[in-house]
Amino acid sequence: TTLVRSLHPGSRLALCDGHYIPLLGFGTYAPEAVPKSMGEAATKVALEVGYRHIDGAFFYGNLKEIGRAIREKVTDGTVKREDLFYTSKLWNTHHSPALVPPALERYLQDLQLEYMDM
């Protein structure tokens, strides 16, 4: 279709709050057999080639590595944090309202990010 032919890493969709979400995202899940360092390296490459939507999750067990990759690429000038859209998922055992804030804080601490976009 026309939409698929016109997609590129910079394609994005306006959200109702005025922010934008990149249409193409880089998923950070990898099976346990894959070293976490490979996920870190792959995330760096994804950012270098133009991906601006990074998707992760506590369940993936690699938040620290993905956070290091993001920080390195922000520090070296490849990307600005405000140009990234980081998405995550709240793990099932953290759905109780009392557990949401500490879970979010832990995720952010592991990622060494100040905020998640979604």
What does this structure look like?
The structure is a single chain. The chain has 118 residues and is of the alpha/beta class. It has four helices and five strands, in the order αβββαβαβα. It has helices at residues 2-6, 36-48, 63-75, 100-111, and strands at residues 12-14, 20-22, 25-27, 53-55, 85-87. Helix 2 packs parallel to helix 3 (63-75).
Structural features:
118 residues, two-stranded antiparallel ribbon, alpha/beta, globular, 13% strand, three-stranded parallel sheet
Low-confidence stretches: none
Overall mean confidence score, pLDDT = 93
Strands of the largest sheet, in order across it?
A: 3-4-5
**DSSP summary, beta strand count:** 5
Which percent bin holds the helix content? 25-40%
Element string (H = helix, E = strand) = HEEEHEHEH
Shape: globular
Structural class: alpha/beta
Quickly count the helices.
4
How much beta, percentage-wise?
5-15%
Distance between the first and last residues' Cα: 28 Å
Tell me about the biggest sheet?
3 strands, parallel
Cα radius of gyration in angstroms: 15 Å
In short:
With 118 residues, the chain is an alpha/beta fold. It has helices spanning 2-6, 36-48, 63-75, 100-111; strands at 12-14, 20-22, 25-27, 53-55, 85-87.
